[in-house]
Give the backbone structure.
Amino acid sequence: MISNLAQGVQAFTSNVYLVAGDRTVLIDTGANFDVVESIHERVDDLDAVVLTHTHRDHVGNLEAVADAFDVDVWGYDTDIDGVDHAIDDEERVTLGDHEYVALHTPGHKNDHLCFYSADAGVLFAGDLVFQNGSFGRTDLEEGDRETLIQSIDRLLEWIDGDLEAMHTGHGPSVTNEPADHVELSAQMARRA
């Protein structure tokens, strides 16, 4: 079961996905709203927090969540404050009831990860790609358009037409031909 805890929140935040199951995980913590209360309304405990990347809008609530649930935080770069454990490129991680492969996808930020499960047909895309061909900003520190394009191309090598849902860092999740949206993002990033 995947729930976006930031849905309907009127604040500057990322999406926050609660993935319930054998290993209940929070993907990103968002910022500027009480995500701890939202978690408590749905589950009693968390097994881990997993980060797509560490921009402020994705980790603003990190300390509050870590304190409230006494939970470890996993991300790409343990040199960043708050990240307890590293997730390596192509490492397998359990989110909910499924195994996902973590894909290091820099270009928006150096520590960016996407998580893809072929079995579940689900992609957590972070801020790499969004619906309708949108893609992550490259005008922020650590942003680089050519690197972002390479990361989108790499993602396309992993996903296929069986992809059923793409959960993005901002905006709505994509459940109608999500792989086509990723392909369109690769095209649009080249044109911009």
Remarks:
- The domain at 2-191 is CATH 3.60.15.10 (Metallo-beta-lactamase; Chain A).
- The first strand starts at residue 2 and ends at 4.
- The helical segments are 35-40, 56-59, 62-69, 145-158, 178-191.
